């Protein structure tokens, strides 16, 4: 950004060199990364990382995207991305997908790609490099992607239907609005004309040569980079890469990318767009600036800009949040961010959500805060707070430097390839961050903040539901002029300096029993009946995870109005404070801390979930204590949230998504009113009572006897024990366990039920949901066979429904198996399509399942399933979250999801899958919910 760069350079003698920092210093890259260029011109980045044992990530990136398309090629960069999976020199047809699935690499999860306006990337992640042949084969995939994609006529035609369905599925209100706003975002430039997905007309009508021409012109070596990170020898991987890519030659003709210029405009632009399916009115103000030149992107000055604009965004967001949490706030919420939007443009993006017909009030309030920042700057307390938080996050990243997974490295190398951004070592990054933070002064911050807000290259964007009254362009400009001409008071803030917890009020308990626990854990029994399970790990140096579970939940609540009130907690919780602190005061009180604890309620449980840095364990436990012993319920806080919902609900209930959710809940539960309690509606809001919410909440934690807390992570046991005794051991208990859960649990209806309905929608499409359910014995065999059925179905549907029929972008298959309150399962099949294709696809959906029941199961599909789950099991077991889950399942529900898992997977056979399928799907329970467009 030129103006910020000039500001920093002008202040350099005063705020840069005076502090001993050379802002023009090139930031050294991490020497652990092998960087080179093949003879063809392809750049590569190779790094060893042993955190994921015997795993590697392989990426290829193209410095090419939708803005390189000609008018007759709109959408073809993205189309080409699809074609890379449909046949290549060494992997004809679906050979690439078939091979990768055979080694446990699952399409959509470990095998994927992404296209943007400026870049395209393909990825093969978490590859099990257990054999040399696997590495050779995956490098061969990269080789083919680099220059040997088939692009056969018939394959192109087959893919048209898939991409049309992707277009249909994604053509929601947000994308329609964005398409209309693009000229305001990118005036006079190619960016305004390239939305990546293209149009349905082009997708169906482009010629084969249109696609091949784009491929030949842009998919060339000098536009490509390989990124390979994993548990291997770098020298060996580099040698293999060079050998595999030896036949790729440098292109003689290298068409340069056009330099894109976005037209400057001296006065604010205005865009007003309405759409009947928008759920809220959003008022955005953008300020476009030129980025720092690419040649400076690897220097300390770029790091300083990133830090300074990040600090400014954080302070401004704090102000917006504080306003939004006040009763009668001028907007529902607001926020901002500073980032590189596209290559020639950085933006300060500020957005506020307005109540219906209050667009002007929201615009005036948001713009006032921007000018308050511009004219009066920030206070020292705000500045010191965000600096402290930034340094705390940087320190945590440094502490976890040896615990990064393969994927954590990739983005830095890709950014270096496209933008010249540096990829320093963790040590260099941390030391530079500390030095730069220490050098930044409040005066410097305020000088930069002042330069961010201006008329030149600014725009106001209004996106609103069609039913909302919106101002004219003239009225919007009048609002801006009015705010500019007004007196704006300097920002003043209040800080609550009370201690987080009244220590005198706490009567600590004791650990009265210590046992060796499951999975090499330790079990503490507290004097108040709370069970504490601890497992120290070395997965992450700076992470502790805590989960507390108490049986009970919403199924213990009989009264429907009480149920509505406690269900509303999930919306209210973000505004709720703790103890003597409002939510705003609490956020300030936690400055410099990495600790959180939240409460949530499910049908069968009340839970306290938290995480922290090891040094902040006491803060996390204090927050957990307050969540149970001193929750804060203020009517003004509830009024803020209910008023927000009263404004949004009239728009939400008009959308196709809401209609589908409503009809689904109604259908699968037989119109049970309890199932409708958590769907937003005016009737729901009328029933919400602060008094009843507080009563239901407190009742869940009134007796903690039998509650189980699980701690996993890098903690000191001797340090944790007195904190647990103090904050968990002091919670109320009568030493009698509460009822597990109530009789008011909601179950699916039985039998065959179909609900086919029509909804008005802007982009006609069908949404189909089929749910198979029934009783099933809870044991490893049945659960893992059901999981195999889910996996096999998903693979089959990709082939039969997506690829062969071209009927949908994808079919999702989800599985739930429950032990309590009854042993049952539910398998859901979900997809979107065009109405003309529905009658063709529904029989295919059923036939694939019927074939499994009939035992028509290919041996390779079982092998693919086993390879995938065994690989994923090993990957997940180096996570604190995974082990926390294992321990919770054992100590709360008595389920061992670890010990015999691999043995159970290995025992899966065609016969065992068929037997489970017969037991599960012969019960005759099938619910279909089909949403059709209004004709």
From TrEMBL:
Gene3D superfamilies: Metalloenzyme, LuxS/M16 peptidase-like. It comes from the Bacteria. One of its GO terms (biological process) is proteolysis. Keywords: Hydrolase, Protease, Signal. Residues 1-18 form the signal peptide. Its cofactor is Zn(2+). Pfam families: Peptidase_M16 (PF00675), Peptidase_M16_C (PF05193). Its EC number is 3.4.-.-. Belongs to the peptidase M16 family. This is Putative zinc protease pqqL.
